[in-house]
Amino acid sequence: MDLDVLKRTAREDLPVTDQEHIDQESYKNQMIKQKWLDFKADFELLLVKAKTDHQQLYRQKWEYFLGKMDDTERLALEWPPQPLKILSVNVHIYIEGDAAIQYLLKRKAYLEEILKFVEDVIKSINTRNFVIKSAIDFLRFKNGL
């Protein structure tokens, strides 16, 4: 599931659409909240995996660029021999410029953005309870109760 799908789902879930059965919207709110809490848990786990993948690859690239990687590990990763002599103070330049590292950094940033969006939707769902209560109070006032 990507951010666009989550945005469409939020547009479907958040509005209070059934004015005639406004009391049922309150019950519906609990189901919606549970669905978004599940999304949050799933994306938190994906973010943890992306972070650990980044840390592991960063270490491997560090060893590779400094020439400290074992040949069996390098061959298992199908990386060519490292022809450059890189100083340890400059190794971060090569690591940060590596396409695989950049991909993982983009993935982490994307998952963090999704997680922020999901958390904002959960806040909106909590606010939805107040909207429903206000609508019910207005109907009572309108009907003279």
- Head-to-tail CA distance between termini: 46 Å
Largest sheet: none
Integer tally of domains: 1
Shape, principal axes of CA atoms: rod-shaped
Oligomeric organization of the protein chains:
single chain
Strand content: under 5%
Order of helices and strands: HHHHH
The DSSP helix count reads 5
Q: How many DSSP E strands?
A: 0
User: Helix/strand-derived class?
Assistant: mainly alpha
> What value does the Rg take, in angstroms?
25 Å
Mean pLDDT: 90
Task: Estimate percent helicity.
Answer: over 70%
Taking pLDDT < 50 over at least 5 consecutive residues as the criterion, the unreliable ranges are none
Produce the secondary structure layout.
Elements (H helix, E strand, L loop, with lengths): L2 H11 L8 H44 L5 H6 L14 H6 L2 H44 L3
What does this entry look like structurally?
- With 145 residues, the chain is an all-alpha fold.
- The chain has one domain (32-136).
- The protein contains 5 helices and no strands.
- It has helices at 3-13, 22-65, 71-76, 91-96, 99-142.
